[in-house]
Specification:
The complex is a heterodimer of chains A (293) and B (139).
Chain A lengths: L1 H60 L16 E7 L9 H16 L2 E6 L1 H9 L3 E6 L8 H16 L3 E11 L5 E9 L2 H14 L7 E3 L2 H76 L1
Parallel strand pairs in A: 1-2, 1-4, 2-3
Antiparallel strand pairs in A: 4-5
Chain B lengths: L3 E6 L4 E7 L1 E6 L2 E5 L6 E5 L2 E7 L2 E7 L2 E5 L4 E6 L2 E3 L5 H18 L4 H26 L1
Parallel strand pairs in B: 1-9
Antiparallel strand pairs in B: 1-2, 3-4, 3-6, 5-8, 6-7, 7-10, 8-9
Classes of the chains: A alpha/beta (293), B alpha+beta (139).
Chain lengths: 293, 139
């Protein structure tokens, strides 16, 4: 009886400590998430203004726009997948969802090489024997624009050397702190998305004055398009990081709640045992006293 | 005098957003001065100092490569890879970075073109930062 109470007491203590840790992790994840959501908002104007500039170039050039980053590669077999996961676990179903999405996309694409950002994705793909040509780690805690510049230049370079027919990003879309979606989207060629956006915009702003370009529209396009690829990857990285932290925050909140429930259950049982012990002792004493009389 | 509404944007944040009288900036075709009612133009930037004046007060920014877009009705948008106000720059840090960039250019001189171009672009950016930071100190 006494031993049992001792074991229970030890468990109460250890569950209590675990709860402290999960609570702290929840708060850390919440503050990181808030910061990254702020960064995402700050990054938006650049992307929007780049699109505006590209639209202007399209207008100036009329229909005859061509750039290797806009064209699909005709005779390439392979595709490239860029997968965003986290470096660490304890983030609920965050990693497993996005990896599942990636694997289904990969089986759809056929022959695939992958670039991973985040250690979890690299491990998962290696287990499935998918060739990972590069993997990067340590981005999600403090996402910086300079982090993704080498990633973007690697991708652009590979695409321009006509090795891949398409480049697909698989990441987790941040909808709210409670809801995130694993999605896949085509990064390259940029054309498909751009052509539709462009046809909308020309209708709307056909009366706008045309720009002059220095040195010429082609050079401007040449310098904007790779930047756009960088910006798109940067935004996906931020979204993925925000999703990771909010998924971790939710997972940790659930763990904290579960630990709380378990604690009150354990305390109840402990008190019952303690009370039973006391009652028994009293019964023993009083029956002992009765025997003496 | 009518003003220009200027936005300086980098991928990470909006660095400057205000109205100014004139903008002096380095482009690939040379230095240009933008005043209100400038004709719409899109031009590629070179790393360098960008000087904004507003009622005689000058502000300088160190910008690296990017582009400047002058829209109708005196709106100007600068999309730069990096841009810093002079207040944000620290001379000591920059001098160190400049030295490193110079060393890298010398190292890359013998290797292939791409590496040299990268190193040279890097040096150009640090030089621009240096110039802007020095200005702040002498003020």
């Amino acid at each position: 009886m006494a031993a049992n109470a001792k074991i229970l007491k030890r468990r109460i203590k250890s569950v209590g400590n675990t709860r402290k840790i999960t609570k702290a992790m929840e708060m850390v994840a919440a503050s990181k998430m808030r910061r990254i959501v702020g960064l995402t908002l700050k990054a938006r104007p650049y992307a929007e203004l780049s699109w505006d500039a590209i639209k202007a170039v399209f207008q100036a050039l009329g229909g005859g726009v061509s750039h290797p980053l806009l064209e699909p590669v005709e005779n390439a077999e392979k595709s490239l997948v860029l997968l965003f996961t986290s470096d660490r676990g304890l983030a609920g179903s965050f990693n497993s969802n996005v990896i599942k999405k990636a694997l289904s996309k990969i089986s759809e694409l056929g022959q695939v090489d992958a670039i991973t950002i985040g250690g979890r994705g690299a491990l998962a793909l290696a287990r499935k024997k998918i060739s990972v040509i590069a993997s990067f780690e340590g981005f999600a805690n403090e996402p910086k624009y300079s982090d993704i510049v080498p990633v973007a230049s690697l991708i652009t370079e590979k695409y321009l050397s006509k090795e891949y027919k398409t480049v697909v990003i698989v990441y987790t879309e941040f909808i709210s702190a409670l809801k995130q979606n694993a999605v896949s989207t085509e990064l390259l060629p940029l054309g498909r998305d751009l052509v539709t956006k462009n046809s909308e915009s020309t209708e709307k702003n056909s009366d706008k004055a045309l720009y002059e370009f220095e040195p010429n529209p082609e050079r401007v396009l040449d310098s904007i398009l790779p930047k756009l690829v960088e910006t798109m990857i940067y935004q996906k990285m931020l979204e993925s990081a925000a999703s990771e932290h909010s998924a971790r925050m939710m997972a940790m909140r659930n763990a904290t709640d579960a630990a709380g429930d378990m604690l009150s259950d354990l305390k109840f049982t402990y008190n019952q045992i303690r009370q039973a012990g006391i009652t028994q002792e009293i019964a023993e004493i009083s029956s002992g006293a009765a025997a003496v009389e | 005098m009518s003003k220009i509404s200027l936005k300086v944007v980098t991928p990470e944040r909006i660095v400057f957003e205000d109205s100014v009288d004139s903008i002096l900036v380095n482009t690939e075709m040379g230095e240009i001065m933008v005043l209100a009612h400038h004709t719409p133009i899109v031009s590629l930037l070179r790393a360098g100092e960008m000087i904004l004046s507003d009622n005689g007060n000058e502000t300088s920014l160190a910008v690296s490569t990017g582009m400047i877009e002058v829209r109708e009705n005196s709106q100007v948008i600068v999309l730069a890879d990096t841009a810093e106000r002079s207040e944000e720059l620290e001379l000591e840090v920059i001098e160190e970075a400049k030295k490193q960039a110079q060393a890298r250019v010398e190292e890359a001189e013998n290797s292939h073109n791409e590496e040299f171009a990268l190193a040279a672009a890097n040096l150009e950016r640090e030089l621009a930062r240096h110039k802007v930071a020095l200005k702040k100190r002498h003020r």
